[in-house]
Specification:
Elements: H1 4-16, H2 19-25, H3 32-46, E1 51-52, E2 57-58, H4 60-74, H5 76-83, E3 90-96, H6 102-110, E4 119-125, H7 127-135, E5 141-145, E6 154-161, E7 163-168, H8 176-180, E8 189-191, H9 197-209, E9 216-218, H10 222-230, E10 235-239, E11 250-254, E12 261-267, H11 273-289
Parallel strand pairs: 3-4, 3-5, 8-9, 8-10
Antiparallel strand pairs: 1-2, 5-12, 6-12, 7-10, 7-11
Length: 294
């Protein structure tokens, strides 16, 4: 029989893409070893692995459990407000995993003073998830890389981000040309799936250069990508973001000649004063970070 405490810990690990990230978001004090032990016990009880550690990815059994427990935990905030006799004033904002929630933190810092009684919740997800969340009004706005217009929602481009390669400093690779000039690239490529705008842009650039890169590791988290590169597991590709976390063991190599990736904000009308304040702060933050290609 499932134990509620273990399901709660698993929810945070699945939502934030790993145990160390989950520990930072669990709203009470618990150490990483304790979380690891509880999840190991849960997996023994289920008789199956619930997620792959590196890179982080839910297994089929893990997805079944997460899809079941997620609605309950996501509604706890609203339930708390109702039982306290206050309306639900949680404003949820979402960002694609490869942009990192830190971008939304910058936006909120630039926004007008937060209205009394309003609290923000920052979510991460894959681009398809974000479109669905905005369409269903589960989040007020979402920011993601996108080269295709999303139906049934309002959107606009807020900037464009270039691509870069991430290599271990121990590898001795000083530029992308060091790789393009080889007869065969042997290092695994660590990157988003080809269905992701970042992956599509990179694959298109490789084809233009007539470069083949067969061995690939798909990841959906920039932190997982950075860690794998730092450990020498391969060469990563991602967005060149001004606020992105840097790793002392990793060197970033700009990719000239590769198409930049549009970054868009999605929302649903009508636009009330709070949403307008957030959109204005988003534009203000974006102008500081990127050159517009509008």
């Amino acid at each position: 029989m499932f134990r509620p405490h273990q399901l709660e810990l698993f929810y945070y690990v699945a939502r934030y893409g790993g145990i160390s990230a989950a520990v930072r978001h669990i709203p009470y004090g618990i150490g990483q070893p304790a979380v690891s032990g509880q999840l190991a016990a849960l997996e023994r009880m289920v008789g199956a692995s619930l997620f792959d550690r590196r890179p982080f990815q839910l297994t089929e059994q893990g997805r079944h459990i997460y899809n079941h427990v997620r609605p309950f935990h996501e509604k706890l905030g609203a339930l708390w407000e109702r039982v306290r006799g206050r309306p639900d004033q949680t404003v949820r904002l979402a960002v694609a995993g490869f942009l990192d929630p830190e971008f939304l933190a910058l936006v909120l810092a630039a926004a007008s003073p937060r209205p009394e009684g309003v609290r923000y919740e920052l979510l991460t997800g894959q681009p398809d998830d974000l479109v669905t969340w905005v369409r269903e009004r589960r989040v007020r706005l979402a920011v993601m890389p996108s080269d295709r217009r999303a139906p049934l929602v309002s959107s606009r481009i807020i900037g464009r981000a270039g691509l870069h390669l991430l290599v271990s400093r121990r590898a001795g690779i000083r530029s992308a040309q060091d790789l393009w000039g080889r007869p065969k690239i042997t290092e695994p490529l660590i990157c988003p799936p080809e269905t992701d705008p970042v992956g599509r842009s990179f694959v298109s650039g490789l084809k233009a250069l007539h470069v083949k890169w067969a061995s690939r590791i798909w990841v959906e988290s920039p932190r997982a990508l950075l860690q794998l590169v730092a450990e020498g597991q391969g060469v990563g590709v991602g967005l060149d973001l001004p606020w992105a976390t840097r790793h002392p063991a990793v060197r970033a190599l700009p990719l000239t000649g590769f198409a930049s990736v549009p970054l868009v904000v999605l929302w649903r009308k009508p636009v009330d004063p709070l949403l307008q304040s957030l959109l204005t702060a988003l534009d203000k933050t974006s102008r500081k970070l990127w050159r517009f290609g509008l």
